[in-house]
Amino acid sequence: MTRKGGDHDFGVVFSIDTSGHNYTELHDFAGGDSDGATSDHGYVVQSGDHLYGTTANGGDNDLGSVFVINTNGNNYQRLYSFSGRTNNEDGSKPIDNVILVNGWLYGMTTEGGTKNLGTIFKVSPTPSRSPTPAPRPTPPPARPVEIRSIAT
Hints:
Layout: E1 12-15, E2 24-28, E3 36-37, E4 45-47, E5 50-55, E6 57-58, E7 65-70, E8 77-81, E9 92-101, E10 104-111, E11 119-123, E12 146-149
């Protein structure tokens, strides 16, 4: 995944084989309400024939998104758009990659939460699945974080 480039200069998701050949563009981020924009890292996580990742911008409020796309480039779907609700409780500007643990995607944001220091979020990789509360870290980290379960 790239931070910039593509037709809209918001980055692309691509595949390339281990020999450095067969570059294929899987998705060209367009930004705006219906898509993500500008990844701050460049990594996706693969599970089966799905790739999961985040963008720091784009989505309904231009505060970032979580997405899934098939490894062949079909079926791009935004799983979550960060909303910036009152006190920005769900976080915004996701950074780094999501990880897939026990059927849930976990990640971090750089902004939001009650102290605007970011959150740790939990999102279902399946749009129709209901979230459950995320566990609290123990012991508490040195920098306050909040864990939010986000409806998708």
